[in-house]
Amino acid sequence: MSRAHYKASAMDMLRSEGRIVCALGPADFGGIDRVKERLLRLASSGRETRLGLRVDPNSRKWSYRPESVCDHVTTSAPIGRADVVEQLEQLSDSVSIDVPIRVVLAGEYLLLDLSHGFSDAVLPIELFAFLADPVAVPALPGWAEARTLRNPLPRALAGWMARNPGKVVDVLYGKFGQPPAELVTPALAPMEQARVPWGRSPAVAAATSVAGAPAAIRAWRRDNLPEVSVTSILCAAIATALSARGISTSYSAGFLFDCRRYLRTDGIVLGNFAVGIDFEGIDPTNATALHESVAHAIDKGRPLAAGALSTMTYLRTRSALPAIATTTAPATADARLTFSDVGRIPQLDGIAWTADPEASVFAPLSEPSLPESIVITAMHIRDVFHVTASFHDNFFDRDAVQSALNLAMSDPTALLTAQEVSR
After folding, report:
1. Is there a cis peptide before residue 26, judged by omega within 30 degrees of 0?
2. pLDDT by residue (tens digit) across 104-134?
3. Where are the beta strands (DSSP E) in 194-308?
4. How many CA atoms lie within 13 A of 15 on its CB side?
C-alpha cells in the first residue's frame, strides 16, 4: 500500500479549501461498480493523475493513497434533468475540505465534488469523459500517462518574457497601460453601506441553449461585431438578461483566465493554472468593452502577473484562500459578475450521452466568496451552450436569476441586437 508523497504547487495550495461541484447527464455511466473501477484505475496509475492524493490546506506535502479514492463514491435515487440544480445545491451545502473527492451516481446523472486543490476545470472535464466513455474497457486516457508540469508558472512567465521583451517591465511592475478610454467609465468610490450578518447559501441556475446557438452567434458576429469574440458576446447577453430581469449589475466585470495559453512546451498541466482578474469601470452588457479589456489583459500578460502575485501571496502567508471571504453582507448592492468561459469541450462530444444536446446538462456550481457576486460559467458542447449562474439565494432571487439565464439562452443575439439599436 503506497504512502508516497506529492509536493503541491503554491497555486494548488491557494485553492485547497475550495471545491469544484458539478453534474453531467444524462449518460450511461455503466453502474456504480464501473465508476469505482475506473476511478481506481486512474488513481492507481500514479500521483500525477492527482486523484489518489489527500489534499491538505496546511501542508504542501500531500500523501498519495489511491486505494481511498472510492471511499465517498455512492449512489442515490435516479434523478431527471429538472432535479440537477437541487442535487447540486445539496452537494455544495455539505462539502468538507477533509474529503478529496465525492461522487454520486443518480441514475444517468453523475455528481462530482472535488477539492479545488486538485485542479481547475481541466481535471473534472477529463474525469467525466473517462467515466462516461462508451468503450467497455477503455485504455487509460493520455493525460493520465503524459508528462505533467507541476509548477508551470515560472516556465510560462519566462517564455512569455522572452517573446515579449518590451513588455517585461509592465509585468514586473504591474504597469499594464489602459484599454481604450471610450470603453471605460471612471470607477466611483464605493459609498459606505450598512452591513448585516450573513452566511453562505449556495445556489445555482442552469440553462442550455437551443441547438445551433454557437453557429448563430458566430454568424451574428460577422455581420455586427466582427472584431469581438464569441465569449464577450455571450457574456454581454447574459449580463443584459440579468438587467432585464431586475438584477442591476455593477460597472465591473471579473474574468477567469487559463494561463495554459502562455505555455510553449510539451507536457500537460492538470493542476490549478487559472487566475481571476477584475476590471473596474466597465459595462458588462457592452460586448465590445468586455472584448477589448480581456484582449488587452492577455496581450499585456496580466494573467501571468496575477498568477505570480498569487504565488507570492501564498509563499508569504502560507494560507489558502477562504471559500467564503466575509460574514456580513451589504444591505443592498449591484451584482458583481465574474465570467468563466470554459470554451469548446470536444472531450465530451463522444461520451455515452443518452439524450439530444438540448436535453443534456453539464452544470458546475462555482460558489462565490462574496454575497454580492454572481459567477457565470459557460461551455460549448455538441452544438449547444451550457450556462450556469452560481450565487447565494439569500442575496439574489433565484427565480429572477433562472429567468435571466432562460432569456439569454433562448436567443442571445436578439438581446444584443436590441441593445445595439438603442445605443
Report:
1. yes
2. 999 999 999 999 999 999 999 999 999 999 9
3. 195-197, 202-208, 252-258, 274-280
4. 24
Strand order across the beta sheet in which 53-54 lies: 5-7, 61-64, 53-54
Alpha carbons 43 and 273: distance in angstroms, whole number: 21
CA 198 to chain centre: 24
| Alpha-carbon dihedral angle through residues 16, 142, 109, 257, given to the nearest 10 degrees | 50
Distance between CA atoms of 329 and 339, rounded to whole angstroms? Answer: 22
Going across the sheet that includes 252-258, the strands are: 202-208, 384-392, 373-381, 336-344, 252-258, 274-280
The percent of residues above 70 in pLDDT, for the chain, comes to 92
The structure's pTM equals 0.93
Q: Which amino acid is at 396?
A: F
User: 28, 29, 49: which is closest to 270 by C-alpha?
Assistant: 49
Q: State the Cα–Cα distance between residues 380 and 108, nearest whole angstrom.
A: 21
pLDDT in tens, 348-391: 999 999 999 999 999 999 999 999 999 999 999 999 999 999 99
Q: Give every CB contact of residue 368 below 8 A, 6+ residues apart in sequence.
A: 338, 374, 375, 390, 391, 392
pLDDT tens, residue by residue, 251-286? 999 999 999 999 987 778 999 999 999 999 999 999
Nearest C-alpha neighbor of 236 from the set 306, 292, 302, 296: 292
- Residue 56, C-alpha cell as written in the block: 491538505
Distance from C-alpha of 403 to C-alpha of 384, rounded to nearest angstrom: 18
CA separation for the pair 232, 240 (Å, rounded): 12
DSSP string covering 58-121, please? T-SEEEE-GGGTTTTEEE-----GGGHHHHHHHHHHT--TT-SEEEEEETTEEEEEEETTT-SS
Q: Which residues pair with 398 in a beta bridge?
A: none
User: Residue 306: helix, strand or coil by DSSP?
Assistant: helix
* Residues 28, 354 contacting (CB under 8 angstroms): yes
- Compute the residue count for the chain: 423
Average pLDDT on 239-247 reads 97
- What confidence tens digit (pLDDT) does each residue in 169-220 have? 766 665 544 444 444 444 444 556 789 999 999 999 999 999 999 999 999 9
Q: How far apart are CA 317 and CA 336, in angstroms?
A: 27
